[in-house]
Specification:
Keywords: Membrane, Transmembrane, Transmembrane helix. The chain is mostly helical. The chain has four helices and two strands.
Length: 161
Amino acid sequence: MTNRGTLLAAATALVAAVPVAAWGLMGQQDAEGFAPAELDYAYQPLGVSDGTAALVGAAALLLGGLALALLLRATRTGRLDPRWWQVLAPLMVTGLVIGVGYRVLTAGVVGANIGAGLTMLFGVPVVASLVSWAMLRGAWLATHSGSGGSGPVARTAPHGS
């Protein structure tokens, strides 16, 4: 049986896994053909090898996939109110923007990192908007449950029973 704590843990794992998977599987985006000493960085990347990052990214992808499967099954069986995907989807997109944006911001380039500037110019407002939407929608769903219950778990029994 899927209980509220399991659904919350799965949702948390899914949202946390997306940026880690994007970061790990994308790899370091340094300009090719230049020695590392010749590259300029907007921000210094973590001192993690590409192989380790790929393993961490693959593990995050697997964890996120398992959490996604559990949440989809809970939605299909009525244990998770489908309206909570209006909170989870923007948070997953936010994680993707953060994971990819981190790789763009830490890319080694020769000269100016135009991608870093564009990431800051467009990525920050997009992330702020998505997180704001998710927080507001989540608060509304938690306080205005249309199924008679409270929080993200939908009632499976009809009203009055």
